[in-house]
# Entry
Amino acid sequence: MKFKVNGHEVFASTGGRPFDKKKPLIIFVHGSGLTHMTWVLQTRYFAFHGYNSLAVDLPGHGLSSGESLKSIEEMADWVSNVIDAVGHKEASLVGHSQGCLVTVECTSRYPTKIKTLSLMGGAGAIPMNPELLSLAENNDPKAVDLMMDWAHGPAGHFGGHPVPGLYHINTGTMLAKSRTIQNTLGVDFRACDNYKNGFEAAKKIKCPTLSILATDDKMCPVKEGKKLASLIDGSQVDIIDNCGHMMLLEEADRVLTVLKKFITTNYPPLSS
Amino acid sequence: MSDKKKELKPNTYKFDTLSLHAGYQPHKNAGSRQVPIYQTTSYLFDDVDHAAALFNLERGGHIYSRISNPTVGVLEERVASLEGGTAALATSSGMSAIFLTVMTLCEAGDHLVVSSQLYGGTVNLFRLTLPKFGIKCTFVKPRDTEGFKKAIQKNTKGIFGELVGNPGNEIMNMPEIAKIAHDAGIPLMVDATYQTPYLCKPFEHGADIVIHSLTKWMAGHGSSMAGILVEGGKFDWMQNDKFPTMTKPYEGYHGLSFAEEFGPTAFTMKARAEGMRDFGPCLSPQNAWNVLQGIETLSVRMKKHCSNAEEMVKYLSNHESVAWVSHPSVPDHPDHELAKKLLPNGRGSMIAFGIKGGKDAGVAFINNVKLASHLANVGDTRTLVIHPASGTHSQMDEATLKFAGLSHDMIRLSVGIEDIDDIKNDFEIGFRAARKPRLVSNQ
# Structure
């Protein structure tokens, strides 16, 4: 579906079901340089089971218009505005990687609005490798290739996608190269590198929180994810073995199973 | 110690490694080092909720082997990885891959622009069968790049061609024709069977969908029928209103828009969800496994195929019984320079040559070679020969043969990986037999 936030058109996948204001809202926030499509193996389930599932394209990404937002704080406010724009008062947030920084900041800023928080491959800070940052800001496609290499664990490099026939390293590459790299990945990486408030924001979070981490995650290692989770009262942690940073694709079923249990328990669906 | 910083390089696996490993994780399959053959029709659901989730495309997995199968899935991922594509769908043959591609793209009333130099079966599909479904085609000679542009109509949904035409070895100027297609907002579909991704990756030259008859070089051993369509993932289906079945809500899946939901894999998802469901040309797991065995040695075999082919080109070019030789490695081949650009790892192992003495000499040659096999296939490890005018293209009338660039003296040679001297010795037997009728008639 399309709607406007701050005067710019936003695209969000509804998981193949019409948006229904009566249903509770889950917003999925993608990682650096990516789009709503990274969530396809999670969003459709919730859409068919009593939720409004909104996998957004951040401004300037995927099918959304406008320019990419330059800071995590701006993105956090933007997510709050998305909730307002679709006529809801509250939502459950799910973030991946950079999306974790955004949803942590958003939850700390708008505690009454956010009912649950699910973090995948999250950390309190994501400092960027300076060379990778420079490549992305200079529009070099090598930045995407490096990201796809580091983002997949050793097992993920072989493939074995849960959706038959999909080769996820090439699919992720295509998503990240679908728009001008310096305007998406470059801006996002810089925003991640600049963001310093993650640990302080985490301390303010009081809603039920889940962190899904992966043993082979090079971009947001388990110890960083645990450090973030330790600052959030009552935070649950689930660790996936033999999996990298792209857990939502590499171990899509496991992620969905854990996410399903957490969200339906803490933020029940509209019963049919 | 040097204080030079090491340059960052992506360490994703390279071609030869992907040929052996892509698409498969042993630890998820009981540690089986070899890809298991899942010889089953169907798959247990965990519960009703799980079944519904699979049918609704809410999660990945298998339902019924007509739609997908784990062994076939490994093959699909492997080929997608080798081509640099986002996704692939394997089929029971190369022809069914072409048919499924067209039926995923087109509806009744649509039009395609098609290269005229194609395998005979493909010509008949486009010329005779697709019109029965209301899909019309305009044929253009592969070297007539401007002709492709002129043939595009308002209802044209794509351009189709073989990268190297069968059997005449004409090469489509893929980058230029891709630009023509993209300027018109339509995709370029390329049958790259003759090349395999070892010789050419069409996505790097602008193709949007790549099709293979895996039966040929990819499987390589003449044992199994199989085909595949591979998606490049770059084509924007939402750029215009030409592809409503990709972009508009689809009734068959609760109003799903394939383009919105699946983006760079939308075409493959639709081909599987709709095409495999409704037409059902699925690949058997045994054949998928056979093809996987072939792909493991693809680069090794292709090197030998190409080196033997270049030797045969030299041999034939200097032979008294040969009137002409067509192969992109020949300097006076019209597409020699284009071949260097598009086929940097080798020009392939298909040779067409004209035998002096015309049809009668061709028949005598074919009937007398002993090592080379006379059959309707290409891309076997063994050397194969056929006389197209009386074989693969025999269902064409004289005018169609001429338009397809076929002559009665043409022999199509698929060079195998036998010892090159043995192939040449065998051809000497064929040529001696081919000269005999002429010697008799000259007396």
In short: The longest strand of chain B covers residues 156-162.
